[in-house]
Amino acid sequence: MHILLDLLHNLKITEEFLGKTKLNTAADEDVHEERRRVLTTKLPIRLGYARGLMTLVIFYNF
Length: 62
What we know:
Blueprint: H1 2-61
């Protein structure tokens, strides 16, 4: 009997967790997509800055 109660309790907790997860998933996907767009637009600028630093380091070391 005790095992059955534990099983039912765990099932209820799992259902609650999955239900909350499904509700938040759509909103989270929008946030992650927006962050991805912002980060990829800044990527070429950062690469250009890094290349400039590398050329300075190489130029002054030789």
